[in-house]
Design brief:
Elements lengths: L7 E4 L5 H12 L3 E6 L4 H9 L3 E6 L5 H15 L2 E6 L17 H29 L2 E6 L12 H21 L4 E8 L5 H5 L4 H9 L13 H8 L10 E4 L7
Parallel strand pairs: 1-2, 1-4, 2-3, 4-5, 5-6, 6-7
Length: 251
């Protein structure tokens, strides 16, 4: 408890699922959290405040420069300069698995716009606040799918490969400014959205069989990695991707 006391944190895509788990974990460690999403953030904010934490919600489109500018201004006004950014917003759980030649161009563009360009835009919006603060922790949410290329959602896999690439480049560019940029690559995680999508049933059994730790992965399994990368414990680590998948991918 208290590793992040008083720090201003922003978590995108945090109305539910993994993002909400991240927001609650940061608040439990003392961070003051702006919970952002296109969906209603009220339940997540209420859970944090009822547990004694500090949080507020905001409707934000991560591809809108105006929304992002307002988000940062709102966070700074309420909590001070932004120090922690968790880039979790993305399109995944509602995707239909299908070969790449059946993916509509519009769906490809939407996935790349949110999952990849969204992080680029969030970072541009938040960077001046971090520079003002003289430090920062950025945690991008990638995906273990990039390392083995499962069939069925080439656009998603490509978008998360780009996240890993951006993490490496941004880590180098910001290392001299006391801002670290790292990524977490989760395995298939039993969030509400994944559980509601029948298409993921076909991926569940082979994923489980390929894990060294053979059980379902839940959002709480990512909290340890998140807090490590958000805290001073990882001050000399940047540009890295931490794979958290129960040992499905090892190297």
């Amino acid at each position: 408890m208290g590793r992040l006391d008083g720090k201003c944190a922003i978590v995108t895509g945090a109305a539910q699922g993994i993002g909400a788990t991240f927001a609650k974990a940061l608040a439990d460690e003392g961070a003051r959290v702006l919970v952002s999403d296109l969906a209603d953030t009220a339940d997540c904010v209420a859970a944090i405040t009822e547990a004694g934490g500090t949080a507020m919600g905001m409707k934000v489109d991560v591809t809108s420069t105006d929304d992002l500018s307002a988000m940062v201004a709102h966070a700074e006004e309420a909590y001070g300069p932004v120090e922690i950014v968790v880039n979790n917003a993305g399109i995944f759980a509602n995707l239909k698995l299908r070969p790449f030649w059946e993916i509509p161009d519009e769906e490809w563009d939407a996935v790349m716009r949110v999952n990849t360009r969204g992080i680029f835009q969030v970072m541009k919006a938040c960077l001046p606040s971090m520079q003002k603060n003289g430090r920062g922790k950025v945690i991008n949410i990638a995906s273990g799918t990039f390392f083995y290329g499962p069939p069925g959602f080439a656009h998603y896999v490509a978008s998360k490969g780009a996240v890993i690439g951006m993490t490496r480049s941004m880590g180098r560019e910001l290392g001299g400014q006391n801002i670290t940029v790292n990524a977490i690559a989760p395995g298939l995680t039993e969030s509400e959205g994944v559980q509601a999508n029948a298409d993921f049933e076909k991926a569940r059994a082979p994923t489980l069989a390929g894990r060294s730790i053979q059980r379902d992965m839940v959002p709480d399994d990512l909290v340890g990695a998140l807090l490590f990368l958000a805290s001073s414990d990882s001050d000399f680590i940047t540009g890295q991707t931490l794979n958290v998948d129960g040992g499905k991918i090892t190297w």
